[in-house]
């Protein structure tokens, strides 16, 4: 599943299509009326966390890439039907595969809380901290994946941030010291920007210290691996150097 920084890269690649007019639209997305799209100009391309947004005069198209979604710009995947394909009067095309499409009515600024997007200029760490403190019983591995708090944070960022801060994923939010809670909010954003930089340089995996790893680089012992929390996402952690705050339940 693409995380927020990967969607920022897509936004940057698609930005030249702002202002272009849709000449043809096709695909197998059941939620779209393709004939309505023809003749519509793209007003903007935006992202909110893991959502890629194409803003049109009629409405906006929200694209979520799920676990295996992908896209192609000015080319198509051989043998794969598009969920949405757009060709433009000025030339070029955007094609999206294996993803979920939804229409967003009205203004995007009213539909989304931009302060929750960890990589947005509007990000408000104080708001994230307040939301965290309102969920003291939440496992920290679930809290980091809560898109209403940390929009754009995915499983890679979750594992790496918890390892960086030496926090056990089964710690509960309410048991974390205030300093650790503030560090959690800070590093969710810091690591997201590092992720973006490494992804652009094609060296992201080289910087993973915990995600998909077998041995802890700090302790030189085997990582634990399990599907934890209500999200049941793969989690990698070290029992020695990642402290479990609060009682063991």
Automatic annotation (TrEMBL):
Q: Per the record's keyword annotation, is Transferase included, yes or no? A: no
Reactions the enzyme catalyzes: Hydrolysis of DNA containing ring-opened 7-methylguanine residues, releasing 2,6-diamino-4-hydroxy-5-(N-methyl)formamidopyrimidine
- Cite a single GO BP annotation: base-excision repair
One GO MF term on file is:
DNA-(apurinic or apyrimidinic site) endonuclease activity
Question: What Pfam family is a match for this entry?
Answer: Fapy_DNA_glyco
Record keywords: DNA damage, DNA repair, DNA-binding, Endonuclease, Glycosidase, Hydrolase, Lyase, Multifunctional enzyme, Nuclease
The residues covered by the Formamidopyrimidine-DNA glycosylase catalytic domain are 2-91
Q: Does the keyword Electron transport apply?
A: no
UniProt lists the family membership as follows: Belongs to the FPG family.
Q: State the name under which the record lists this protein.
A: Endonuclease-8
Q: Which organism is it from?
A: Pseudoduganella lurida
Q: What is the lineage of its organism?
A: Bacteria, Pseudomonadati, Pseudomonadota, Betaproteobacteria, Burkholderiales
